[in-house]
Design a protein that fits this description.
DNA Methylase, Chain A, domain 2, two-stranded parallel ribbon, 10 helices, 27% helix, 14% strand
Amino acid sequence: MKFGSLFSGCGGLDLGLINAGLIPAWANDNDPSACKVYRDNIGDIIEKNIEDISFDELEQVDLITAGFPCQPFSSAGNRKGVEDHRGNLFFETLRFIEYFKPKAILFENVRGLLSTKNKTGNKLINDIEDILTSINDTLGYKVKHRLLLSSDYEVPQNRYRVIIVGIRNDLEKDYHFPAPIIQDDVSALTVGSIIKNLNGAKNQVHWEFSPQAKHMIKFIPEGGSWKDIPYEELPPRFKRIKDEIKFYRSPNFYRRFGRNEICGTITASAQPENCGILHPLEDRRYTVREIARIQSFPDDFVFDLNQITEAYKVIGNAIPPRMAYHLGKSILNALE
């Protein structure tokens, strides 16, 4: 079963699908850093904007995947053509589905998709499902979506993602999301397991914090956050937040997850104000290899980029390969 990959990033989803037994036919992204990592580890990727891809250069596929940005649109319109929606990346993805008519489609998106409203006032997720259910007069998909937690699928990270799966109607197949993996010993998913046995691992470099951040993190204990920093040591902005913490909805900046905890979501920005990027024992960010492990990339998957910030970005944007593996298996099972 061959798949085509859109918005492929550095290849987290594709790696998982390959490990599940699917065959990559083509991939596309327009981010140079992500494309370099993809080429270094997986293979060829078309590095251009999705609008500029010619169908003539692509082979037929059974599955199309995409992690498209969730842009609201004004109307589903009639599905006789999507040209009126060029520039909206969901509709760009839809052009590929209309052309190739794959047996299955797999979309991934952020948790916020479920609460995002369209310009019409409808929920975006509902409009997307309605469009996929009947793309045109002859093509439609049986579509399901679910919010999945990565740590339920052997990923050492509590990362929520919306997964949308569609099976072509004429195949008369039912799809079932993979059941959570029940593990007797969850210690393999903890921060403590991530930071073990790193001798010889590649990409063991970290992005230095600013002087202000370095000063703050030395007051944060393992398992703590900025709330543990003495008030007099806080910068003025953090003092204002602490003075009106209910107004700011009690933010939990500078979270330092303990070795017995599962890490929270690693973001592309890798900033301590929006993800748990602090090493539990050392006053630094996780290394590139450590966050790659948190995303479930194997140690032989390398991130050799000139700018270290780009490595953090492409890893943070990726779909965890181990979660993708279980999704790939579930799609193969549905189509058997």
